[in-house]
Every structure is written in C-alpha cells, then in structure tokens.
Amino acid sequence: MFAVEMNNVSVYIGDRQILKEVTLRTPYNTVFVIMGPSGSGKTTLLRVINRLIDLVEGARVEGFVKVLNFDALHSDPYELRKYIGMVFQVPNPFPHLTIYENVAVAAKINGVAKSKRELDEVVKWALEKAMLWDEVKDRLYDHPHKLSGGQRQRLCLARALAMKPRLLLLDEPTANIDPVNARKLEEAIVSLKDEVTVVMVTHSPHQAARVADYVAVLYDGRVVEQGPAQQLFLRPSTEIAQKLLRGEI
Amino acid sequence: MYSWRKLREKLFTCLIIALSVLAIAPVLHIILTVFVNGFAVIAKAGTSFFTDLPPTPLSKDVGGIAPSIAGTLLMTAISLPIAVTLGLFAAILTAEFPSNPLSLAVDAIAKPLASIPTIAVSMIVYTLVVVPMKSFSALAGAVALAVIALPYTYTYFSTALRSVPSVYREAAFAIAMSRWGAVVRVLIPVARKALTTGVLMTVARVMGETAALLFTAGRFRTGVSFSPTAPADAIPLLIFDYILSPYAVWHQVAWGATALLLLAYLMVFLATKLIVKEVRL
C-alpha cells in the first residue's frame, strides 16, 4: 500500500511534454523527496498529486495516479484536496487574514473543528507542529506581513497541517528562507512523518540527505532513479544521480 | 565634476517640479473658479439651496436644486447596484475562466461598450424604456446610467481581480476551497481596495453623466420626487440647461450646482483614499 502511486504518468502543457512516463511509489508515513535540477518537472509532479495542475491552462495528464486510495485523475479535485496539504516555494499566507485566521480557515473549511474551542486547539496544535507557536502566541491577531519570510513559510505549514491532511506536499519550502528558519522547517518536517506522509521537492542533495527516507531523482521529466535514501546516497546507480549528488547538474 | 553632477540633479528636480505645476495648474484653476463662484451662490441661498425648487427665470431669489439632488441620488441608487452586480459577476467569470467562450465574448463586448457615445445610449434607452412606459422616468435614466457604468465597473473589477497574485488563488485551492470559496474568501478580500475604488469611481461617473439622461430622465424640476416611474431631474442636466439659458439667476444656480457636484466628486476620491485600507501583501 502506498500513499502515492504513479504509473506511466505523462504531463503535457500545450505541445510541450513536462513529465515523461513517470512511475513512482511513496510508502505511507515516510518523507519522500523528489530531487532534481531546475526545470526537471518536480513542481509539476507535485501538482499532479493534488490536481493543482488543473489550474494550468492547456495542461493534460495521462497515465494512472492513485493518491490515498483515490483514483486522483478521475476524482473530484476538491474532495481529493481535503486530504492533501501543500506548502509552496514562495510563502503565501493569505494577506487579508490574521495569523490565527490563516490557520483556522483551513480547519474550518475542511470541518476539522466544529466549535471555537476546538478551533483554538487545532490552531495551537498546528502552530506548535510548525514550530511557530512560541514566536506568535502573543500576536495571533497580527497580519502575516509582520512576520519574517521564514515565519511566514512556517505559518503556511501550519495552515496546511490544520486541515489534518494525510499527505503533505512541500514544494522547495526552504528555497526562499534563511538557514535558521530552514533548519526549523526541516525539523518540523521530520517530526511530522508519524502522522502524515510527506512528499517534498528539493534541488538540494544536502537537504534531501537530512530529511529523506526515500528519494526519487527526476531529470528532464523522467524518474531516473528511486529508492531508500541511504542506498541512493551511498550507491547511486545512474550517472545523472551521481552528478546531481556531486552538484554538477 | 561632483558639483556639476549636483547642479544637474537640482536642475532636473526644478524641471520636474515646474512641469508638475504646469500639469496641475489648469485643474486647480477649474476647481478654484468653480468653488469661488459656486460657494458664493450656495452661501447666498443658504440651506434652501438644498431644499427649494429652482427659481423662475426672472426671480431675484436663487432658490434651490432639491429636485435635481433627489433625482441624482435616486438614479445613482438604482443604477449603481445593477452596474456593480453585473460588472462583478462578469469580472469573476473572465478572471476565473479566461478561455471560456462566454468570458471571451464578455471581454470583447465590454470594451467597445465603453466607447459608445453616451447620447446614443440615451436614444436606445428612450426607445426601449421611455416609449413603452409612455413617460420619462428615473428608472429610464437609471437604466441608461447602468448601461454606461457597466463597462467601467467590469474593467475596474476585472483588473482588480486579475491583479491578485496567483499564489493566493493556488493556496486557496490547496486547502480544498471551492472555486466560489476562493473568489469570496480570498480574491475579493485581497482586492478589496481596488474593488471599492472601482465602485466609488463608478459613483462619480454616474453622478456626473449628462448625455445619457437627455432623452430618459425627463427634467422634472417642479417638485421633489423619489418615485422610480416618475420623471426626474439630475444635477448635470440642470447645469447643462441653465448655463445655456439667457437668465442670470439660472447661471448662478448652475455655478452652485457645479460646486456641489465637484465637492461630491472630491469627497468620493477622498473617501477612496481614507476609508479602504490596502491589504499589505
């Protein structure tokens, strides 16, 4: 049983093929890292999982995608997304909502909390899990523009967690934040895998080595290698994976 | 070398200031002229300028413009919700489904609609509303104003919605919001400043429109009416008629009405600046 199962998935945007017959399997309750150079199709792959690819004009997906027992390509995307949280490369908390509301809105929409008390508990839990609670507990009603970039990204993680998702998608979540915040975010990610399966995209082999249980190497839209992280880092079997680990591509 | 650079910078600053003053001077001149002439009339008439009927041509008393104020308020109140509602839904449609044939059609129609002469709109509404009703009316005037305002509201609103960075839309979908939920809970609140500015600019546009009312509203100046089916007057119509007349007292009333209209305009713009807070991204 896998949280995400892809068989021969190809994605086209207009005439351009972005993903080429991708096949991969993500075991439950692991951190599964998709690694690859810029433009290899990592973000597109994540967006196939939660069907955000539908928002891309002219996008077409072929193949089979099973996500948490959903036939993802033929399911209602809104229903599917209830079980999948996502953190984007650029921190995007809702600017018109307060810190509290940013987290609460995700819980409310997905019926995670019924009463105000439950909502308060979920907000606190999510902010704690995102390692942000101590920094914002006295200013929950400030707007996110008052937070640093790294804090905003952790707020986005808290928002995703407040949905109580079973799968968490992270699209280079530390790409735009400082090393201290990046470390906190990585710690949060590793601590989460008991409760949720994490699929994370990164172009950094070092980060992948720190957090990953499983790794897939994506290059030019193809998965060139995948397997347990230790095995892949110690004995990469393809030249592309070796070059990627050496930072040559 | 250093001092030449400083001198050049100062010269450039002076040039910018001089050009800015030159650009703003005619506007200031208009505003000052209208206010000096208009407020003298309003001060002379007192509160009766807002509550009385207009004077007869040979009257020594300035009287008031109550029918025109009532008509302007009534027609704005009817036309604005029509233009804002239709404009907002059209803008949501084209922002959310940009490739949909209906969106493309709406976009293609809305832009030329803004350039149709307003007097032509007045004639069309005369044929479609005034003739069947057998009477000029505030409703006919409001329909004409709504038709004129619609392309403006659509353009303001669609620009506002499209200016919201797509990352917020994606974030909304990623937490399982429906498309409608994303529009109502995220897109509209994030764009609220621009949307409200659009509404207020439309108010200003509607209040100042003259030609659209020529064959529709009916220039009712012998009483104050708030009935949509009865003929009505509007401040710009009154200004248009009175300033072309040969009577001195009507010229005075026109100045007072112009000052009032201009004051309303300025208040709308001031309200736009003060009331609505920008969402800081």
Describe it:
- The complex is a heterodimer of chains A (249) and B (281).
- Chain A is of the alpha/beta class and 249 residues long.
- In chain A, 36% of the residues lie in helices and 27% in strands.
- Chain A is built from ten helices and ten strands.
- In chain A, the strands form two sheets. A six-stranded mixed β-sheet of chain A has the order 6-7-8-3-9-10, sandwiched between helices.
- In chain A, strand 4 and strand 5 form a beta hairpin.
- The model of chain A has no long low-confidence stretch (mean pLDDT 94).
- Chain B is built from eleven helices and no strands.
- The longest helix of chain B is centred in the first third of the chain and has 44 residues.
- The relative contact order of chain B is 0.16.
- Chains A and B meet through strand 6, helix 3 and helix 6 of A and helix 7 and helix 8 of B.
Descriptive key words:
heterodimer; A: 249 residues; alpha/beta; 6-stranded mixed β-sheet; 4-stranded antiparallel β-sheet; 10 helices; 27% strand; B: 281 residues; mainly alpha; MetI-like fold; 11 helices
Write the layout of secondary structure elements.
The complex is a heterodimer of chains A (249) and B (281).
Chain A: E1 2-13, E2 16-27, E3 31-35, H1 42-49, E4 59-67, E5 70-71, H2 77-81, E6 84-87, H3 99-109, H4 116-129, H5 133-136, H6 149-161, E7 167-171, H7 179-192, E8 197-202, H8 205-211, E9 214-219, E10 222-228, H9 229-234, H10 239-245
Parallel strand pairs in A: 3-8, 3-9, 6-7, 7-8
Antiparallel strand pairs in A: 1-2, 1-4, 4-5, 9-10
Helix pairs in contact in A: 3-4, 3-6, 4-6, 6-7
Chain B: H1 2-45, H2 48-51, H3 66-96, H4 101-114, H5 118-133, H6 138-162, H7 166-174, H8 179-190, H9 192-207, H10 235-243, H11 248-274
Helix pairs in contact in B: 1-11, 3-4, 3-6, 3-9, 3-10, 4-6, 5-6, 6-9, 7-8, 9-11, 10-11
